[in-house]
Design a protein that fits this description.
260 residues, alpha/beta, Rossmann fold
């Protein structure tokens, strides 16, 4: 379903994004990785994916806080791969604190990476997709695009905005063979979730183990973390021909969290 398609995934050097890259490569897509990490480890990941799945894999270190970097990355993908078919906006950061203690620089960074970066990638990618009359845009949102939690003012704001951006661009591109959707995971065991546990414990006056079981998994009726494989599987389906009439929606994968 994605064989031969060029797929750019932001925030794909770990967690959900890396699993998406792996599953798309497994299905024959050429991959452009983007994200932070140790350069040697990123190169090992890039080379490993290319060798294991016999696809073209590149890495672009564009800074998701820099609109010029983002535009340059899309230009490079268009030039080096002959076009960008699938864009997955997955880059994200988190910070947890009461609103009165929330650092302004953390607010700006979270809005910039989780929200504004998606605007900049989509803005740059859509002209080529329109020209080719085909494209798939997937935004990694969150259950926090649909509901809120305390102490996450920036993250919840950014993810709600992603849901609105998804709807808007879906309407603008609906007659061009382009679909735009968002996936809204619940708590997935990734480095992003793991890193927020100490701050959440501090903010709530709890132990880290209590945060896992009484805060994170308490929200999910299944009492289980969502897996990265489940998120990647849905992303693949949304890129298939069977999903061509699905556009403008935010799909929860949250163990029933937003069914409350």
């Amino acid at each position: 379903m994605v064989s031969g398609k060029t797929t750019l995934i932001t925030g794909s050097t770990s967690g959900i994004g890396l699993e998406m890259a792996r599953e798309f490569a497994r299905e024959g897509a050429d991959i452009v990785l983007n994200g932070l990490g140790d350069p040697a480890e990123i190169e090992a990941t890039r080379a490993g994916l290319a060798e294991e799945f016999s696809v073209k894999v590149a890495y672009d270190g564009a800074n998701m806080l820099n609109p010029d970097d983002i535009a340059g990355m899309i230009d490079r993908v268009e030039a080096d791969f002959g076009g960008l078919d699938i864009l997955i906006n997955n880059a994200g950061i988190q910070y947890v604190a009461p609103i009165e203690d929330f650092p302004v620089d953390k607010w700006d960074a979270i809005i910039g990476i989780n929200q504004s970066a998606a605007f900049h990638t989509i803005r740059a990618a859509v002209p080529g997709m329109k020209k080719r009359k085909w494209g798939r845009i997937i935004n990694t949102a969150s259950a926090h695009a649909l509901v809120a939690s305390p102490f996450k003012s920036a993250y919840v704001s950014a993810k709600h905005a992603i849901a609105g951006l998804t709807k808007t661009i879906a309407l603008e591109t609906a007659t061009f063979g382009i679909t735009v959707n968002a996936i809204a995971p619940g708590y997935v065991w990734t480095p992003l979730v793991e890193k927020q546990i100490p701050d959440t414990a501090k903010a709530r006056g709890m132990t880290e183990e209590q945060v896992k079981h009484d805060v994170l998994l308490e929200a999910q009726p299944t009492k289980e973390f969502v897996t990265v494989e489940e998120i990647a599987g849905l992303a693949l389906f949304l890129c298939s021909d069977q999903a061509r009439s699905i556009t403008g929606v935010t799909i929860p994968v949250d163990g029933g969290w937003t069914a409350h």
